[in-house]
Write a structure and sequence with these properties.
- By secondary structure, the chain is an alpha/beta fold.
- The chain folds into 3 domains: about 10-95, Winged helix-like DNA-binding domain superfamily/Winged helix DNA-binding domain (Arc Repressor Mutant, subunit A), CATH 1.10.10.10; about 100-170 and about 270-300, D-Maltodextrin-Binding Protein, domain 2 (3-Layer(aba) Sandwich), CATH 3.40.190.10; about 170-270, D-Maltodextrin-Binding Protein, domain 2 (3-Layer(aba) Sandwich), CATH 3.40.190.
- It has helices at about 10-25, 30-35, 40-55, 70-95, 115-125, 140-145, 205-220, 230-240, 280-295, 295-300, and strands spanning about 60, 65, 100-105, 130-135, 155, 165-180, 190, 200, 225-230, 245-250, 260-265, 270-275.
- The strands form 3 sheets. Strands 3, 4, 5, 6, 7, 10, 11 and 12 form an 8-stranded mixed beta sheet that branches. The chain has a two-stranded antiparallel sheet with strand order 1-2. It has a two-stranded parallel sheet with strand order 8-9.
- Strand 8, helix 7 and strand 9 form a beta-alpha-beta unit.
- The termini are far apart.
- One of its GO terms (cellular component) is protein-DNA complex.
Amino acid sequence: MDDYVEVGAQALAPLLAAFDAAAETGHFTRAAERLGMPQSSLSRRIKTLEQTLGVGLFQPIGRGVALTPQGHELHERTRGLVRALDDAVRRVRTDADPDSGLVRFGFPLTLGPVSIPALLAQFHTRAPRIRLHLVQAHGEELADQVRTGRLDLAVMIPPPADLPTVALGRQRIELHVARGHPLAGRTRVDLAELAEETFIANPPSYQLRTLLDSWCAAAGFMPRVLFEITEFETVRALVALGLGVALLPAAEVSQPDLAVVRIDGERDREIGLVSGDHGSTLAVARLRDFLIARRVGISGG
């Protein structure tokens, strides 16, 4: 298969799987790792596909690869077919057995250190043969992967309106300041009191940044953001160093250099368990039911 050109659906299926993985990752090595094959085999499959079609599909860019115009067109036309085939094979293999199979599960950056891993450990003791492919990312990325079928389930904060969702609880957002900050000894604070503060926040594409901007605007000011960063633990570290304040959910691990102050008003956001519309195996349903039954362990209340 890897060493000569064949024509037909039977021959093209593994070639298109290699092409799709490389197109998604932009890197032959990572694509080979995703498919569990040597990079040399993946490279031969892509070369065979290019010879079959008579066009180049990739061009080198830095340490990775980028699609050619012909590659872009092929990817747009075949990406759904490859995923539909993957889903069909996966469902046929696992539908009949809720104790085995693969579940692709995503969760947000703010629930990583304790709550979600602890629940997954509990689930593993009950279903040790179910394999979990885990993705931790911010909201828009998780939503996109659920919509396109790359994830079966995802805990999202907040869940998008266009995907089936089961409410799990709410996540409170609070003011975080350094221990030496004048507000560190307070139990509550009005948001308007923060008008002169310097903020450390996520980029504007993050939902938590949208909340910060809208809440501050409602309080009569626009936040002065000194640092923008995607990683929540880095935000906390910068706050602990006295470089600014931040509105964040409570950390899941102890943060001795930070003080957390409750903000007046309703300052929380919904936690939801989101599923796609690509069908569901019994293994996916089993994890979904498990997480719903233990929603307090996710929401913290």
